[in-house]
Please model this.
Amino acid sequence: MRSLSLKRPIIFFDLETTGTDIIKDRIVEMALVKLMPDGSRLSYIKRINPECPIPAAATEIHGIYDEDVKDAPTFRQIARELYEWMRHCDLSGYNAARFDLPLLAEEFLRAGIRPEFEACQMLDVQHVFYKMEPRTLKAAYRYYCSKELENAHSAEADILATIEVLEAQLNKYTDVLSCELDPLCRFLNDGEEVVDYARAMVRRNGTVVFNFGKHKNREVADVFTKEPGYYDWMMKSDFSLHTKQKISEILNQSKLEKLHKKQKA
Model:
């Protein structure tokens, strides 16, 4: 039976939220399971008061009502504790790279904490499934584990199923998938490195390029040099806080490099 070969802990996590907008929506429940290199597990499971009404459409999916979270802590109240619990760990989940991680980063930034997840490996179990057998989590659980997923959209049930699915994938695709996290993530990300959690930018061959819109695949620093107004437009538009943080870093770095060239000339 193959399982992940870990050099440091990896956290599998799932969020239930007020909606699907990674910028505007809020967490109402989270489940995190930390797998240790020795095979042991630690859990961090909480309901969160989103400080706003939970839309009926969201409640229909996860079954959490305003009444259920009215006495729960806000994210700001548990942010520091959670961040310390997550530090120095790699991350994983199902569709977590495109939804859970960027939404979680927004919550941290609103709480005054700058999450430094860039140094972490992000293993999205959905990517394995889409590479091999494109389906939903429920179908993946049935296909790989020969089980029916009960209590789907309960954060804890979903993330425990995700761990089982990954272990089954590692054992099914032994000739393709490595149990080592670094090569496994490289295989799933097709050589791209995420720059911001919302994936507005990616790094290819060491160069940061846009991953959306009219400048897709163009170097970010080059666009800002030739079209300065594009940076201003992004900062004023409805991009995530983390995306705005990253484009500011890129612009400032570009200005420093130009200044150094002038000083040498």
